[in-house]
Amino acid sequence: MKLATWNVNSLAVRLPQLLDWLAANPVDALVLQETKLSDDKFPQAEIEAAGYQVVFHGQKTYNGVALLSRASGAQDVVKNIPGFDDDMARVITGTVDGVRVIGGYFPNGQAPDSDKFVYKMRWLDALRAFVADELQRHPRLVLMGDFNIAPEDRDVYDPVAWAGQIHCTPQERAHFQQLCGLGLVDAFRLFEQPPKSWSWWDYRNLAFRKNQGLRIDIILVSDTLRPRVQACVIDKLPRKNERPSDHAPVVVELAAQ
DNA sequence: ATGGCCTTGGTACAAGGA
């Protein structure tokens, strides 16, 4: 079973690339972030024509998430974080083939001294409570998405320049560790990986060509699923396309039960 | 090297992203 996450930075722009990627990478579940589409504009028919079921939670212009899955579809779908009042469409959850899949577009936070950072901290508190609750009922659980947190210095191309900056603050990293403390593990780090592995590269500064990026797109798997994890990779190929998203997909492979 | 790019809304350029 393969599951993946991808921040597409506008599904309206990236739909052809998404369909190409799915044709080459027939995953069982895929969560998308930054679809930037209200639900009435979501390209459901095109995705279904490609052989996927899809549930989505969007808004105009900003944010927006979706969960694609194979024929059996996603069960018990939840949109956003219950009990957390939020104008932004950031979370979608469903059960796919017995695995509880939570897809998240974590707040950016803008700057550590900003109101948006305060929101990020509140959102992370709410997410942690939600994930803890979900884990009680679904021990086979995957939390994946654009975390907008670089968990460690090795996830940052220039840790000195980024020290204390957004994505790298001690507060954000503490939240990441608290999520792991619920009984989740970073699937990417279960394996030896190439040094300087990133999932996002700035559009500016020839950052992709110079491999200057961050690893902020992350797949956490529950302790129950951990023995089934066989591989976790970042697929840089779509970042080499014309008109790419600034993020690359991340894929995890689970052994059959 | 100040910012350099991309997307949206809307039709000029500002805001947000990371």
Structure in words:
The longest helix has 23 residues, at about 115-135. The protein has helices at about 10-25, 45-50, 115-135, 160, 170-180; strands at about 1-5, 30-35, 55, 65-70, 75-80, 90-95, 100-105, 140-145, 185, 200, 215, 215-220, 230-235, 250-255. The strands form 3 sheets. The protein has a 6-stranded mixed sheet with strand order 3-4-2-1-14-13. Strands 5-6-7-8-12-9 form a 6-stranded mixed sheet, with helices on one face. Helix 3 links the parallel strand 7 and strand 8. The protein is globular, with a radius of gyration of 17 Å. The chain contains 5 helices and 14 strands. By secondary structure, it is of the alpha+beta class.
Give the arrangement of secondary structure elements:
Layout (H helix, E strand, L loop, with lengths): L1 E6 L3 H14 L4 E5 L10 H6 L3 E5 L7 E5 L5 E5 L11 E6 L2 E7 L9 H23 L3 E6 L12 H4 L7 H12 L2 E3 L13 E2 L11 E2 L2 E6 L6 E6 L15 E5 L3
Parallel strand pairs: 1-2, 7-8
Antiparallel strand pairs: 1-14, 2-4, 3-4, 5-6, 6-7, 8-12, 9-12, 10-11, 13-14
Helix pairs in contact: 3-5
The chain binds one DNA strand of 18 nucleotides through loops.
